[in-house]
């Protein structure tokens, strides 16, 4: 890679900004035990068994590192953050979260996870912020839990680990949850999951079902379904956050607009209705993008150009992708100090409603 920095990153704002990592995975022992039970029973479908089965059972170095990192919200995680120069992390229940569980199991597991995460934030308020988990299988309970997690526990958003056993937030059944997020003024983080059972077969045969490709396909599909279903017309103040430089969506803006306009005019698909705005405008105005797992200069600068500098912010994707050198790569991006401060710090403070003083922002 070009642009190798002279010194390694350190915490404390010495660069002129603190680094807030905005897509950092975490899990409770309760949910990983439930996942292991499902794996042993052969439950959850091919995507779950392929991805979670690997990370929960493999003895290879990377899955072992991931397991240790996921279940830690203390000394190990903080040591890794310090070594990489990460001042603050936005933690969220890792994929697939509760979204492979029925409501009977998911409601309680989500509530317990929120309690545990809030306790971790209380122990380390300058280092951690948390996003709330809910069980989407029980929408009234999900609304109540999101309100509790934000209003009483102090969590700062909602994590959605993409499809809900093959269903998407484009379905109006789930819109009361989005309405609650908008009313609470907290963002929704749409995190990848493996493709649903109807999509995954060919990808899995080729080894392309996970983060290498399948995640991008599944999450970009979910995002587009939300847009074309009218979610952002119905909830114009809703803030959606997606990772991995927008799951390739910024590259397609012109084509989305052109093709959607033609489909509306031809009435080819009953599901494609007129929208108040262009697809590109929803992506540019309603969606914030993080760099999780995507540290290269050219794609980051391209994404900033396509969606706006004020809609792209830093993330690491710990513990799945923990490479301290990638922090250095982003420190060396061709931006002014003011732009880097926004990229690493200020946009995240604004989107997640963080207390700048409490987290030591410069």
UniProtKB/TrEMBL annotation:
The keyword Protein biosynthesis does not apply. GO terms for molecular function: carboxy-lyase activity; hydrolase activity. Keywords: Lyase. Residues 75-354 form the Amidohydrolase-related domain. GO terms for cellular component: cytosol. It comes from the Bacteria. GO terms for biological process: secondary metabolic process. Pfam families: Amidohydro_2. This is Amidohydrolase.
């Amino acid at each position: 890679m070009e642009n190798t920095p002279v010194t390694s990153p350190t915490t404390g704002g010495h660069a002129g900004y603190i680094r807030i990592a905005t897509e950092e995975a975490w899990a409770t022992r309760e949910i990983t035990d439930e996942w292991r039970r499902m794996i042993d029973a052969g439950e959850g479908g091919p995507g779950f068994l392929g991805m979670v089965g690997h990370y929960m059972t493999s003895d290879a170095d990377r899955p072992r590192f991931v397991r240790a990192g996921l279940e830690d919200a203390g000394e190990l995680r903080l040591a890794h953050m310090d070594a990489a120069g990460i001042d603050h992390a936005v933690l969220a229940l890792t994929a697939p979260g509760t979204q492979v569980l029925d409501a009977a199991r998911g409601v309680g597991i989500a509530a317990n996870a929120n309690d545990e995460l809030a306790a971790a934030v209380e122990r380390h308020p300058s280092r951690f912020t948390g996003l709330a988990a809910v069980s989407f299988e029980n929408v009234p309970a999900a609304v109540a839990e999101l309100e509790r997690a934000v209003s009483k526990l102090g969590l700062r958003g909602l994590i959605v680990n993409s499809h809900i056993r093959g269903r998407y937030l484009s379905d109006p059944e789930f819109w009361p949850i989005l309405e609650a997020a908008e009313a609470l003024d907290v963002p929704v983080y749409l995190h990848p999951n493996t493709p649903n059972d109807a999509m995954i077969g060919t990808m899995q045969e080729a080894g392309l079902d996970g983060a290498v490709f399948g995640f991008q396909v599944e999450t970009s599909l979910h995002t587009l379904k939300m847009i074309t279903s009218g979610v952002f017309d119905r909830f114009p103040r809703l803030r959606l956050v997606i990772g991995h430089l927008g799951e390739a969506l910024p590259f397609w803006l012109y084509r989305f607009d052109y093709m959607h306009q033609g489909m509306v005019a031809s009435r080819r698909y009953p599901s494609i209705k007129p929208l108040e705005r262009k697809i590109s405008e929803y992506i540019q105005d309603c969606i914030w993008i993080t760099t999780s797992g995507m540290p290269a200069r050219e794609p980051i600068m391209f994404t900033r150009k396509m969606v706006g500098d004020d809609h792209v912010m830093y993330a690491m994707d710990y513990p799945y992708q923990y490479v301290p050198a990638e922090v250095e790569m982003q420190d060396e991006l061709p931006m002014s100090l003011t732009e880097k401060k926004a990229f690493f710090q200020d946009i995240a403070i604004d989107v997640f409603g963080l207390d700048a003083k409490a987290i030591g922002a410069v």
